[in-house]
Amino acid sequence: MSGVALRQAVKRYGQVQVIHGVDLEIEHGEFCVFVGPSGCGKSTLLRMIAGLEETSEGEISIGGRDVTRADPAERGVAMVFQTYALYPHMTVEENMGFGLKMNGHPKAEIKEKVTEASRILKLDDYLSRKPKALSGGQRQRVAIGRAIVRGPEVFLFDEPLSNLDAELRVDMRVEIARLHKEIGATMIYVTHDQVEAMTLADKIVVLRAGHIEQVGSPMELYQDPDNRFVAGFIGSPSMNFLQGTVQGGQVVIPALGGRKVATSVALPAEGSEVIVGLRPQHLRVSEGGSDVTIDIRERLGGVAYDYLIAPTGERIVAETRGDEAIPERTKVSVDFDDVDAMFFDAKTEARLR
Ligand code: ADP
Ligand code: MG
Fold it and tell me: Cα-atom radius of gyration of the chain, to the nearest Å?
């Protein structure tokens, strides 16, 4: 069994602390994604697990074994980087087998493992090519192949698709999901892209400024975020946040013409401000009836996104049908089902439940 556990893991660079006491449990065979904005500490945390960065405080264990001070080579992990880091003068086959060769594995065994990896990654036809004769996606597959041949218990990926163009990124995302199903190893995958996180993960870890904001399955985070940050980060387009006021046990939204929202959550005292969260998918737009204006509409085919401006100056995004006929610049009203509204504390931004 090769789950990964972090206990109060801390990372400091000199005086600067960048990882603040992270506790995390990743099950054997799980696909775990670290997601968060640039600079939040995703790579640092992954490199601490790999042993490429020293852990300042706390404990890291892999497969129940404390590896906090172990060498990278002793941890049973293999890492795949954004830059593929292939040897330009070696063929695909030599690149994939190089690590094993350096460790003195017999030729026949290397051949067998490289053949198996190239079958999984559909690289059979490219084994004698050099990296410069490969596309970006093929190069990244070779880099993944190099990790597979080492037979690690845990795969670590650091933004492996960021150098690929959009179309290829989708293809490779599907490939990586298939790879995980086929080999069933524990995988930890770092990305700043919430769509990659949603589509690949069994478990998402949302990081912000070196802290874990929330851990859960993609749908748990989407449907039940703990705070405004997670609510805004997960889901596309992002959740709308509007100012609301508690009045008579309900929440009044000035941006939507004083629309009252009934809710069973524990609201703060009468007159308090709250943040109302509404997903673009939950909004219905109809002509007339309020002073909200359609500023711009983006048509994506099946759906369209209406970018709206409320009389309060607040901006709202609504998902409508691709063939929506209400013209831009029209005054519209925006409605939703009360149960779909979420509420957040105006100061702490914690979810009100
Ligand atoms: P992410 O991968 O989420 O974009 P990183 O883990 O690379 O973020 O970085 C987290 C924080 O640690 C950033 O603020 C970054 O500036 C800082 N950091 C990373 N490496 C070093 C280093 N060698 N020395 C000092 N600070 C660093
Ligand atoms: Mg990074």
Answer: 24
| Ligand 2: centre distance to CA 257 (Å) | 43
In order, the DSSP letters of 259-316 are EEE---S---STT-EEEEEE-GGG-EEEEEEEEEEEEEEEE-SSEEEEEEE-TTS-EE
Where in the chain are the domains? 240-345
Backbone angles phi, psi at 54, to 5 degrees: -70, 140
Of ligand 1's atoms, which has the minimum distance to the CA of residue 46? 6
> How confident is the model over 74-118, as pLDDT tens digits?
999 999 998 888 999 999 999 999 999 999 999 999 999 999 999
In this predicted model, what pLDDT tens digit does every residue of 141-166 receive, in sequence order? 999 999 999 999 999 999 999 989 88
According to DSSP, the β-strands at 315-321 and 351-352 are: unpaired
Helix, strand, coil percent content, the chain, rounded in steps of 5: 30, 35, 35
Spans in the chain with pLDDT lower than 70: 1
Asked if residue 92 lies in contact with residue 127, where contact means CB atoms within 8 angstroms, the answer is: yes
Q: Given this model, what pLDDT does residue 336 score?
A: 98
Cis-peptide into 152, omega within 30 deg: no
Segment (H or E) for 319? strand 315-321
Distances (CA, A) of 237 to 17, 43, 50, 125, 305: 32, 25, 34, 40, 8
Predicted local distance difference test score (pLDDT) of residue 95:
97
Nearest alpha carbon, ligand 1 atom 20: 44
Instruction: Determine the topology of domain 240-345 in CATH.
Output: OB fold (Dihydrolipoamide Acetyltransferase, E2P) (2.40.50)
**In ligand 1, which atom is closest to the CA atom of 158?**
2
Determine contact, residues 158/43, Cβ cutoff 8 Å. yes
End-to-end CA distance of the chain: 37
